[in-house]
């Protein structure tokens, strides 16, 4: 599925050479037949990119090699390019992760107001973790009042982008680090606040357990998405509510229904 975030025709298939192991592992979860078929043709036409992927992400080498076997016919340059564009469009989320300056122009970030985060709890003098920090939307907002903010992000290009951004903004209390939500590289009960946006939810129970582990008793776990235009007549997500989260609602500047979730650790 594409978010419509890029004009894929404008991108070289070499964009995949900017991607990390974590991204290739995530792509390999896509079992859609048409995506696999087109990716197989695109990779058959770009053997150096296949070589890079299977060496960068050996645990999913089988997934990528199998695609090539299925694409054993000869394809014209135009057919290969057609498949490259299809794949880049389907992977627009990953393309913007390796071109963070594009990600930073998306409405969910530019239309968002930091009060949406700071009104959930008091961040003053707190030690905060932002998981899946991206371009730092939440981390930078928290840093206006918190004592220290750790911005954890598995994508190398996003980490570099954030490091430059916090330097430019002179935010020396923000530390940019590698890390994933399912294995947070910190000791137990380290943070007053653990937050994320558009990251929590692939495996709610595992991720919440890990976020709870690194949160101090009395601390907060927050899921604070950005702006969008999606109407949600079904109401808030049921999974966080089952896990004891409370929620706050607002109508976004883009006309969507936005729910923010939070839970205090007892
Ligand atoms: C849509 S972006 C949102 C970025 C930022 N949180 C925001 O709301 O502006 C999702 C981010 O989560 C990161 N991410 C995705 N899965 C993750 C995981 N399992 N652990 C940590 N970060 C993850 C991605 O690399 C990406 O930066």
Key structural traits:
Rossmann fold, 2 domains, 7-stranded mixed sheet, binds S-adenosylmethionine
Q: What's the short story on this structure?
A:
The chain is an alpha/beta fold and 266 residues long.
CATH-assigned homologous superfamily of the largest domain = Vaccinia Virus protein VP39
Which structural class should the secondary elements be placed in?
alpha/beta
Q: Give the fraction of residues assigned to helices.
A: 40-55%
The bound ligands are: S-adenosylmethionine
Q: What order do the strands of the largest sheet run in, or round the barrel if closed?
A: 3-2-1-4-5-7-6
Q: Strand-residue fraction?
A: 15-25%
Low-confidence stretches: none
Give the topology string: H per helix, E per strand: HHHHHHHHHEHEHEEHEHEE
| Biggest beta sheet attributes | 7 strands, mixed
| Overall CATH architecture of the largest domain | 3-Layer(aba) Sandwich
Provide the CATH topology of the largest domain: Rossmann fold
Describe the 3D structure:
The protein is an alpha/beta fold. It folds into two domains: 8-98; 107-264, Vaccinia Virus protein VP39 (Rossmann fold). It contains 13 helices and seven strands. The chain has a seven-stranded mixed sheet with strand order 3-2-1-4-5-7-6. Helix 11 links the parallel strand 2 (148-152) and strand 3 (174-177). The two termini are 39 Å apart. 39% of the residues are buried. The mean pLDDT is 97. The protein binds S-adenosylmethionine. Residues 97, 109, 131-134, 137-138, 153-155, 158, 180-182, 197-199, 226 line the site of S-adenosylmethionine.
């Amino acid at each position: 599925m594409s978010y419509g975030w890029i004009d894929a025709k404008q991108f070289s298939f070499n964009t995949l050479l900017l991607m990390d192991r974590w991204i290739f592992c995530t792509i390999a979860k896509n079992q859609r037949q048409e995506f696999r078929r087109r990716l197989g043709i695109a990779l058959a036409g770009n053997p150096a990119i296949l070589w890079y992927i299977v060496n960068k992400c050996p645990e999913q080498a089988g997934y990528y090699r199998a695609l090539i076997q299925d694409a054993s016919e000869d394809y014209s340059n135009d057919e290969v390019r057609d498949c490259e564009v299809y794949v880049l469009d389907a992977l627009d989320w990953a393309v913007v992760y390796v071109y963070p300056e594009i990600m930073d122009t998306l409405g969910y970030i530019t239309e968002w107001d930091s009060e949406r985060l700071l009104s959930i709890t008091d961040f003053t003098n707190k030690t905060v973790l932002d998981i899946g920090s991206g371009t730092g939307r939440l981390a930078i907002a928290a840093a206006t009042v918190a004592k220290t903010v750790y911005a954890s992000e598995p994508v190398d290009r996003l980490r570099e982008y954030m490091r430059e951004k916090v330097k430019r903004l002179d935010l020396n209390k923000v530390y940019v680090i590698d890390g994933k939500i399912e294995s947070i590289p910190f000791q137990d009960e380290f943070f007053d606040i653990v937050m994320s946006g558009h990251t929590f939810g692939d495996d709610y129970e595992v991720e919440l357990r890990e976020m709870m582990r690194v949160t101090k008793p009395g601390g907060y776990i927050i899921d604070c998405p950005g702006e969008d235009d999606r109407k949600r007549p079904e109401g808030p997500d049921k999974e966080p509510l089952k896990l004891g989260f409370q929620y706050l609602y607002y109508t976004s500047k883009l006309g969507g229904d936005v729910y923010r979730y939070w839970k205090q650790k007892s």
